[in-house]
Amino acid sequence: MSELERILYVEDEDDIREVAKLALEAVGGFVVKLCANGERALAEAEAFKPDLILLDVMMPGMDGPTTLQRLRASPGLETTPVIFMTAKVQPSEVAHFKSLGALDVIPKPFDPMRLADQIRAIAGGA
To answer: Any idea what the CATH number is for the domain that residue 28 is in?
Structure first.
């Protein structure tokens, strides 16, 4: 994988989106593009060319797994690493998300001070 710099973060909760953006930019040094839903992610992901996609699981309209499936059909995003963020972290749920193509799952609520390191650790093992 190339250097991890650009993260597309898809999350429907405004406050969670803002905390994560601040954590990833200020603490992690990443360039972050926020999308409030799967439809917006599909509209903006190709042009943004993310190095990694951070994806909420439970969103109104198009959920995370459906968004991932649709993003995989976009040119240039077929192999972009994806990490799900969710409160659904039972072993069977994590296994299911990985079977969909996610590298791993970051549990919510997350620690803003550790988020960038968690992402680097997961992506570094890809």
So the answer is: 3.40.50.2300
Q: Are strands 6-10 and 31-35 parallel, antiparallel or unpaired?
A: parallel
The per-residue pLDDT for range 33-87, each reduced to its tens digit, is 999 999 999 999 999 999 999 999 999 999 999 999 999 999 999 999 999 999 9
Q: Give the C-alpha separation, 109 to 58, whole Å.
A: 14
Backbone angles phi, psi at 96, to 5 degrees: -65, -45
Stated pTM of the model: 0.95
Structural domain range at position 91: 6-124
Q: For 1-126, where are the alpha helices, taking DSSP H only? A: 14-22, 38-48, 64-71, 91-99, 115-124
- Residues 13-23 as b/e (b if ≥16 CB within 10 A, e otherwise) read eeebbebbbeb
